[in-house]
Recover the amino acids of this structure.
C-alpha cells in the first residue's frame, strides 16, 4: 500500500478527461452508465411514469354521458375548493407542526444522552427505543388501539380504579393527539439512531480540546454536537415532512374502532384512497395524489431553503 | 496529509469500527455515570416497551380474557400455545401463507434494491459520463416524492399492464429506493479507494469483476443498511399491498392481519369471536423476525446509516 499519491480529495470526483491516453480512463467512462442503468430504468418506469400518468389523468374527467373528456385544470380548481381535501391537508399540516418538532426534539435528547457516555445500560436503552421502528404500523396501530380502548384498555381501567375521569383517547378532540402518539412511538427511535450515528462520527479530539478549555457536557452538546448534527437533523426533518403529509396507515386502521371520528377524508391520503377505491373517481383521485405530492415537495423545499438561508450569514 | 494512506483517510469517517468504539467506551468509562439521567432514560424506555409488553401478555389470553382481565398482567388461564396453534390453523393455515408471502416480497425487494442501489451509487460516485449530474439530481429530487402519493397512479398503470394482483405489484415498486442510491453513493465515495480500483484495472480485471469481487465487499456496511431498511419498508408496507392485491392468498401479513382485525371488530361476539386473540398473537409472531434481524445486524446498519446523515 505505497500508492498514496492517488488519494483524491474526499468527496470530489476525478474527471475522466484529466487522465488522457490511458486505457483505463475510456473503460471507466463506458462502464459508468452500465452500473447506473438498471436503477435508472426502473426509476423511470416506477417513479417518473406514474407521476406523468397521474398528471395526465388529472386533466380528464369521466362523465356519465360521453365517456372521458378533457377538462384542463377543472379537477384542480375543484380540489382547491374541495373542503374535504382542504381539511385533510390542513389536518396533516397541523399534525406536522405539532408532532414533528416533538418527535425530533425527543430523538435529539435521546441521541445526546446516549452519546454523552453518562448512561448506564446504554446499549439496552438504545435498542429498546429503536425496536418500535421494526414493528409494522399495522401492528402498532392495533396495539395502541387496544391500549386506548375506553372500556377495556388498561389506561381506562387504571383511571377507573383510582376514580379519575377516563380519558377518551378515541374521541374527536383526542384523536389527532392519539395518532401523533402512535407515530412518535414508531419513529423516535429511527430518528434517534440517525442522529446518534452522526454524533459518533464527530472526532473525539474536539471534545477533549473543549473540556480542556473548561466546557461542560451541556456546553459541548450545545456548541459542538448540535451544530455538527445539522445535516442529520435536516435529513430527519425532510423524512418527517414526507411521512406526516402522507399519513394513512394509522388513521385507516383506527377507523375500524372509531368510525365516527375518522372519516374517509380524515387525511389527504386517505381521501385519495377513498376516491380511487370506493368512489371509483380515478381522475379526481389522481389529481388529489398529484396535488398532495406537490404539497410535500413544496414543504420539503421550504424546509431546505430555510435551513440553507440560516446557514449563509 | 501525505503521510496518510487512503484507507486511513476514508474508513474511520463513516465506519466506527469495533476498535474505535472500544476506544470511545474506554474514554467514557473514565467519566462518571449519571444516575438521574439513566433513570430518566429508563422511564422513556418503559414507554417504548409498554405496548410490546402488552402484546406479549395479551397473546397468552383467550379472546374473553382479553376483555375481562387487566391488560398489563396475565390472566388465570394462559394459553399462548393454543393461540399460536389457532393462528396457524385458522382458515386452512392462511396465516402461514401470509408470512411466507411477506418473506418473499420483502426478501426479494431488499436484495434487489440493495444491489441496484449499490451499483448505481458506485456508478455515480466513481465514474463520469454524460448526463450523470442530471440523472443524479433527478433521483435526489425523487427522495421527496411520497411513495403513497405514487401508489395510486402506479396502481392504475399496473392495472393496464395486468400486473395488479400479482407479487410483482409489490416487488417492483420496492426495488427503487432513491434514498438508498444516495446513501450508497456517499458511502462509495469514501469506502472505495480509487487506488484499489486502479490497481485492479492494471491487473487486468474487468469492471464487472471489480464490482462483484472488490467493490461490493467494501460497500458491505452500506449494503446491509439499504438491505435492512428496504426489508423493513417492504415487510411493514401496508398501503401498496392493500390497493394492489385482492386475493387473500397473496396478502402479506400486514394486510392479512388488518383484514382479521376488521373481521373481529365487525363480527361482534358471535361463535367465531376468537378472532381478537388471533389478531394479537399474529401481530406478535409477525414482528419477531424483524426484531431479530435488527438485533443481529445492528453493528452494520448503524455505521451504514451514519454516512447518510453526515454528508449534505
Amino acid at each position: 500500500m505505497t500508492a498514496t499519491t492517488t488519494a483524491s480529495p474526499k468527496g470530489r470526483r476525478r474527471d475522466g478527461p484529466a487522465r488522457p491516453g490511458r486505457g483505463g480512463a475510456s473503460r471507466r467512462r463506458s462502464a459508468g452508465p452500465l452500473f447506473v442503468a438498471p436503477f435508472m430504468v426502473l426509476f423511470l418506469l416506477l417513479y417518473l411514469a406514474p407521476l406523468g400518468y397521474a398528471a395526465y389523468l388529472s386533466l380528464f374527467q369521466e362523465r356519465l354521458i360521453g365517456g372521458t373528456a378533457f377538462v384542463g385544470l377543472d379537477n384542480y380548481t375543484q380540489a382547491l375548493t374541495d373542503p374535504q381535501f382542504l381539511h385533510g391537508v390542513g389536518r396533516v399540516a397541523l399534525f406536522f407542526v405539532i408532532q414533528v418538532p416533538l418527535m425530533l426534539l425527543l430523538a435529539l435528547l435521546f441521541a445526546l444522552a446516549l452519546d454523552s457516555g453518562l448512561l448506564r445500560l446504554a446499549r439496552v436503552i438504545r435498542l429498546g427505543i429503536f425496536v418500535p421502528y421494526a414493528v409494522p404500523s399495522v401492528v402498532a396501530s392495533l396495539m395502541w388501539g387496544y391500549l386506548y380502548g375506553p372500556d377495556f384498555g388498561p389506561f381506562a381501567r387504571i383511571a377507573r380504579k383510582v376514580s379519575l375521569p377516563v380519558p377518551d383517547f378515541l374521541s374527536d378532540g383526542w384523536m389527532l393527539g392519539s395518532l401523533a402518539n402512535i407515530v412518535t412511538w414508531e419513529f423516535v427511535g429511527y430518528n434517534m439512531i440517525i442522529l446518534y450515528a452522526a454524533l459518533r462520527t464527530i472526532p473525539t479530539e474536539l471534545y477533549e480540546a473543549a473540556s480542556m478549555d473548561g466546557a461542560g457536557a451541556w456546553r459541548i452538546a450545545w456548541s459542538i454536537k448540535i451544530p455538527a448534527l445539522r445535516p442529520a437533523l435536516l435529513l430527519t426533518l425532510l423524512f418527517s415532512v414526507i411521512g406526516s403529509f402522507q399519513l394513512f396507515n394509522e388513521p385507516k386502521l383506527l377507523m375500524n374502532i372509531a368510525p365516527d371520528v375518522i372519516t374517509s377524508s380524515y387525511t389527504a391520503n386517505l381521501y385519495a384512497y377513498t376516491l380511487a377505491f370506493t368512489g371509483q373517481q380515478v381522475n379526481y383521485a389522481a389529481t388529489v395524489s398529484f396535488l398532495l405530492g406537490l404539497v410535500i415537495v413544496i414543504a420539503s423545499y421550504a424546509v431546505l431553503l430555510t435551513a440553507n438561508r440560516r446557514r449563509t450569514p | 496529509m501525505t503521510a496518510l494512506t487512503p484507507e486511513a483517510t476514508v474508513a474511520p469517517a463513516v465506519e466506527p469500527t469495533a476498535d474505535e468504539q472500544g476506544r470511545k467506551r474506554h474514554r467514557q468509562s473514565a467519566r462518571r455515570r449519571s444516575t438521574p439521567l439513566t433513570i430518566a432514560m429508563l422511564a422513556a424506555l418503559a414507554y417504548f416497551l409498554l405496548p410490546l409488553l402488552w402484546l406479549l401478555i395479551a397473546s397468552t389470553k383467550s379472546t374473553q380474557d382479553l376483555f375481562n382481565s387487566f391488560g398489563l398482567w396475565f390472566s388465570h388461564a394462559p394459553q399462548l400455545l393454543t393461540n399460536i396453534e389457532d393462528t396457524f390453523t385458522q382458515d386452512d393455515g392462511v396465516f402461514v401463507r401470509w408470512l411466507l408471502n411477506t418473506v418473499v416480497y420483502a426478501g426479494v425487494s431488499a436484495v434487489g434494491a440493495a444491489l441496484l442501489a449499490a451499483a448505481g451509487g458506485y456508478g455515480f460516485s466513481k465514474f463520469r459520463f454524460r448526463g450523470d449530474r442530471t440523472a443524479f439530481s433527478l433521483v435526489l429530487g425523487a427522495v421527496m416524492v411520497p411513495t403513497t402519493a405514487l401508489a395510486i397512479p402506479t396502481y392504475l398503470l399496473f392495472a393496464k399492464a395486468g400486473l395488479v394482483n400479482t407479487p410483482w405489484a409489490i416487488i417492483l415498486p420496492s426495488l427503487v429506493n432513491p434514498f438508498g442510491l444516495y446513501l450508497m453513493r456517499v458511502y462509495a465515495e469514501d469506502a472505495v479507494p480509487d487506488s484499489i480500483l486502479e490497481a485492479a484495472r492494471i491487473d487486468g480485471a474487468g469492471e464487472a469483476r471489480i464490482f462483484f469481487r472488490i467493490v461490493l465487499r467494501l460497500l458491505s456496511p452500506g449494503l446491509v443498511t439499504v438491505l435492512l431498511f428496504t426489508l423493513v419498508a417492504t415487510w411493514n408496507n401496508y398501503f401498496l399491498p392493500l390497493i394492489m392485491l385482492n386475493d387473500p392468498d397473496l396478502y402479506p401479513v400486514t394486510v392479512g392481519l388488518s383484514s382479521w382485525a376488521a373481521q373481529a371488530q365487525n363480527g361482534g361476539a358471535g361463535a367465531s369471536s376468537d378472532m381478537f386473540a388471533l389478531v394479537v398473537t399474529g401481530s406478535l409472531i409477525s414482528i419477531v423476525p424483524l426484531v431479530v434481524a435488527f438485533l443481529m445486524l445492528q453493528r452494520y446498519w448503524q455505521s451504514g446509516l451514519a454516512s447518510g446523515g453526515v454528508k449534505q
Notes: Chain B touches chain A through 125 residues (CB under 8 Å). The two ends of chain B are 24 Å apart (CA to CA). The CA atoms of residues 61 and 222 of chain B lie 42 Å apart. Chain B has a mean pLDDT of 83.
